[in-house]
Structure formats: structure tokens, C-alpha cells
Amino acid sequence: MTDKQFQQLFAAQLAQIALLQAIEANVSFMAHKRVPIERIHPNWKKAHGLLGLAMKQLAPAAK
Fold first, then answer.
1. Which one in 18, 31, 38, 63 has a CA-CA gap of 20 to 30 Å to 4?
2. Which domain holds residue 26?
3. Tell me, what DSSP letter sits at residue 35?
4. Distance CA 59, CA 20 (A)
5. How many domains, the chain?
6. Residue 47 and residue 13: Cα distance in Å, rounded?
7. pLDDT 10s digit of each residue in the chain, 63 long?
8. Cβ–Cβ contacts within 10 Å for residue 11, how many?
9. Is residue 29 a contact partner of residue 7, using CB atoms and an 8 Å limit?
């Protein structure tokens, strides 16, 4: 596996984890509509952070 392939795989996995955490947070939000999402699910901020990291990794990996 080349460095570029590894970087692409790493970015894709980060994006997948972020998406799954966001989905989990969204389901929790739907169950507790009147509560701010940051309070009901601790992974919400983590999902945003991982997605941002994945986006930073995707740009160089796509070259």
C-alpha cells in the first residue's frame, strides 16, 4: 500500500466514523427534541472534529 492509498483510506475511515457519530447524535436528538444536541450526545463535537480532520486529509490524498 502506498502512502497516498493509506492517506485516502485513513481519511475515508475518519469520515465514516464522523458520519456514524453524527447519525447516532441525530437519533438521540430526535428522541429528545427539546434538549440541545450538545447536551444529549457527547459525540456531536467529536463527529464535527473528525469530519474536519477527514476533509483536511482528503485534499492532499486526492492529488
1. 18
2. 3-61
3. S
4. 21
5. 1
6. 12
7. 788 888 888 888 888 888 887 777 777 666 666 656 555 556 667 777 777 777 777 766 666
8. 20
9. no
